[in-house]
Amino acid sequence: MDFTNRTPFPAKLLTGSTGEREILAIAACKVTYRLEQERLVPVTGDDAWPVFDKPYEFEKVSLSPDLEFRKRGIDMLVFGKAMAPQGKAVRSMRVAVECGQIRHEVAVFGDRVWRKTMLRFVPSEPEPFTEMPLTNNRAFGGKAKMYGAEVAHSINPDGRGFLFEKEEVEGTPLPNIEDPGALIKAWQDKPRPACFFKPLGILEKKNLPEEPPERMPFRVMPTLFNQAVPELVAQPEELGDSLRLMGFAPDGDIVFPMPSVKGPSVHARVGDLHSRFPATLSTLVVLAPERVLVASYVALFRYLMRPMEERQAELKWPEDVEAEKAVARGVTHGR
């Protein structure tokens, strides 16, 4: 299928056979915005993020291809550090991402280790910090010794604080990032890792009801291809008019107006058949220090391939609206 991108933003089309005659097509368009004076300003040219057609590593996080049709919901990936207010060192603070009904909050501590007292092991006083990475290696997990062998945490093997044996406790670092509602109190605690990015293992939603182990695949499959942690996977109706980052800047909250959930459309023609397939928001990538938001839109459709028929697809904003104006509509969305 011939593909023409009539938007000013990066876009790609991928097709693949699902049978002898049926073809599955997926189109992705990515819009990069800068936050300027409380407005989203679209970026084009070399400064715009490209559409990824294969996994891409960014700041040690593996980003999935944008041309992924199996993902459900809108992933929200926020890159940044916990920044102490006014740049004055703190021993602990809270960091949160909030958008409509979506909220992910973590408690952030300075470096700590387990210390032995007369009766038990206790965390040392957190070291003061002005900034703290929010990477998975700062959340609970890691590798622990068990009968002389090293055992990796099943969810977050890159983390810290995972312990099995009492002899290994003294001097072992605690995680810097914790769930405020389930803080570590004893070295035997095994909390759910408070990750900001999807770990290597399976991180399920909080407070799930008890179910037989054989039901786990049915719970996991719907979110298997999401990139974000469960707290940051949204449905369109859950999103608000703004995305607020708390604790990511020393001078206060960072607030992004939300871009439109609706993107451009694919106008497809196969022989004498014509149809239009709207692209919807699939992923939001936020770069807090740079005040950049990247919105990925995806459209999915199928068609039958018949020999000698002309097959074309055009990606464009609604015919009565120029691309730049359609983007501007997203700029003022909800204001």
Record keyword descriptors for this entry.
2 domains, 335 residues, single chain, disordered C terminus, mainly beta, five-stranded antiparallel beta sheet, 2 helices
Strand count: 25
Order of helices and strands: EEEEEEEEEEEEEEEEEEHEEEEEEEH
Through-space gap between termini: 40 Å
What low-confidence regions span 5 or more consecutive residues with pLDDT below 50? 329-335
Q: What is the CA-based Rg, rounded? A: 23 Å
What global shape is seen? globular
The fraction of residues in strands falls at 35-45%
Mean pLDDT rating: 91
How much helical structure, as a percent, in the residues? under 10%
Count of helices? Answer: 2
Biggest sheet record: 10 strands, mixed
Taken together, the total number of domains comes to 2
- Structural class computed from helices and strand pairing: mainly beta
Written description of the protein model:
The chain is mainly beta and 335 residues long. It has two helices and 25 strands. It has two domains: 2-73 and 235-331, no CATH class; 83-223, no CATH class.
Q: Short summary of the structure?
A:
The protein contains 2 helices and 25 strands.
Topology:
Layout: E1 2-5, E2 11-17, E3 22-36, E4 39-43, E5 56-58, E6 61-63, E7 74-79, E8 81-83, E9 92-99, E10 102-109, E11 114-116, E12 121-123, E13 131-133, E14 140-141, E15 143-146, E16 149-152, E17 160-161, E18 177-178, H1 216-220, E19 233-234, E20 242-246, E21 254-257, E22 262-270, E23 273-287, E24 292-304, E25 311-316, H2 323-331
Parallel strand pairs: 1-25, 7-23, 14-17
Antiparallel strand pairs: 2-3, 3-4, 3-24, 5-6, 7-19, 8-13, 9-10, 9-20, 10-18, 11-12, 15-16, 20-21, 22-23, 22-25, 23-24
